[in-house]
Amino acid sequence: MAGRFYFAWRMFATAKAQDDRNYNADVESRVRASFNPLLHLTGRQFKDRYRISKKVLKFLCKELRSLTNLSSSQRVSLEHKVLTALFFFATGSYQRPVGIAKHMSQKMCSVYIEEVTQALTHKNIINKYIRFPDTPAARQAVSQRFYRKYGIPGVVGCIDGSHFKIVVPPKEEEHLYYSRKHYHSLNVQMVCDDEYRILNVNSKFGGANHDSFIWENSDLNTYIQSLHQNGEIVWLLGDSGYPQRPWLMTPFLDAESNNYNDKHMRARVVIENTFSRLKNRWRCLHKDRVLHYKPVKCAHIILACSVLHNIVINFGVEDTEENIGLQFERTMESDQITYTEREATSDLIRGRILRDQLARRVL
Hints:
Main location: nucleus
Subcellular location: Nucleus
Shape: elongated
Pfam families: DDE_Tnp_4
Distance between the termini: 101 Å
Strand order of the largest sheet: 3-2-1-4-5
Keywords: Hydrolase, Metal-binding, Nuclease, Nucleus
Domain DDE Tnp4: 159-310
Oligomer: single chain
């Protein structure tokens, strides 16, 4: 008899606990619905919290809904998921989004961040918002803007790598991510145009890899070489950490200040500032933060923030005063490793000839 009573009590207790969970979930859902950032925050407050405008949020949600698998769940809207992820990207902290939301657990916060990150890195989104100019007309447009601003012809982008700190990876692969800066990182290669728009991202390599190695093993390197083979003479601008090639112009080394080097440096600052703007707007990537995920997920977060960076540029959302003050932090770095050629290859020789011709044209 006692066993039957105990069994009945356990069934009742289990059912009550489930009812309580359902009730709490309903309450939390109503609480979330009662606070709408689009309605209850001013434009400035919204931008300070999420780093984008209300107009951009509406557009972003529409794009993710139509181009990816991201959708609302029974109790949480797609917009709420996106706002949760944006707040994490903007702060780099789980605790602040959880603290402000009050009725959202850290576990669910993590789930929403993962869902939105996957959506932002969906191939449909990437192909639309991170695109190297894929037609002669598009490349010509970028080249003309660079020439008007900096006086160097033929430039279709500036290239550089930047380290993004990550938590210590598993021991068997840790050596791939320990950088010369003495911390674990991803060395992310990016190419940008004159308007700080990111045209290409390669976030697959650990911090132990040098910029030149990442470039030599990138799809963009192969692509721009194919342009030269088809008679289209355009190039990227890179620092002395890259090899001089017909399609990649680097500064003259051990030379006194000259017009080519001066213009090269002024033009190439755009990639330095692109990294700074990216890291200062999306503070999860900031130099004082560490991404506490496996390297592959860290790479996805960097790519997701790059997509958001370009969307913000497309809408003309200005940097906050806080971001502007930090804009030029990377230009002060002076520990760049110079690339050394092992032998005088035909690509190197042709690259130097083209650079000499280019230097005479910009006098």
